[in-house]
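As described in the Methods, two query proteins were run sequentially through the folding procedure within a single session, without resetting any intermediate state between them. The first query and its resulting structure tokens are shown here.
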Amino acid sequence: MIHLDGRTLAEDGTALCDVAVLRESLYKTGSWPANAMCNDPLEADLYNAAIRRLDLDWMPLNLSEKLEYSTWMTPEPWASYDIQTWCLFQCETEEQFNRCKMELALFAERGLTPVLQHLKYLVDHWRQHNIVWGVGRGSSISSYVLYLIGVHKVDPLLYDLDCTEFFKHKET
């Protein structure tokens, strides 16, 4: 565990934060990292009750517990969205379809389908609220599925980018 300025960063990437850190993040950016957890249950309960009472479409504040993909605050209908079928229906050529099918299998193999659902929600939310996001960077641009969802604007098929670059990981 790493301790820094009111935050404790666990090995799994979860950030356990003091209320002051979360308030500052909310004030400066309008949100906090999805992996942030509040270390004050009373403060978290008050915040969550307020957003329910005001019927705000804001991400609830989690208590000090590990955040799993299944507990991401992905609202309906995105949480149960058939992202795989949606992606496949976006394909216009056999090459696109085959690439998409292969990548979707790689995402599913790693248990990352809920991440795709959440990304679809985020991109839809950004578009609805005219929020500008980046055109893409790093190995994510080698993913055709992320291109279809709108996470980035680089067509990896056009540039013959290998999607295995995105799915590389180090063995521990």
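Immediately afterward, the second query was submitted; its sequence and tokens are:
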Amino acid sequence: MGHVNLFAVMFNSKAEIIYCNGHFVRMTGLSVDEVMGRNWDDIFVSPWAGDFPLHHESDLLTRDGERYWVRWNSILLRDSAGTMVGVASIGEDITERRRLERAMLDASV
């Protein structure tokens, strides 16, 4: 069975990271202790202003300065009363696809 490498991150209602998977830690070069309880904007630069988009693409800069392009799909987490209590996000590394698209565009010019 193949191994799927997806970024997984969960936030609470204060936008603090409450979970990240091993792939996220390996790819960013950050330790779990450096990530847990911190706001995403304290670690990375957000590509949006205002409400958190559920489906978007953004770059992710690692500790070593490597840049990945990630397609994020998120869901809002709600309690039994319907109050939003957090967000769960799964990210797919689409860096190679972006490079190939850019190369094709450059070649057609």
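The mean pLDDT is 89. We note this only descriptively and draw no conclusion about the first query from it.
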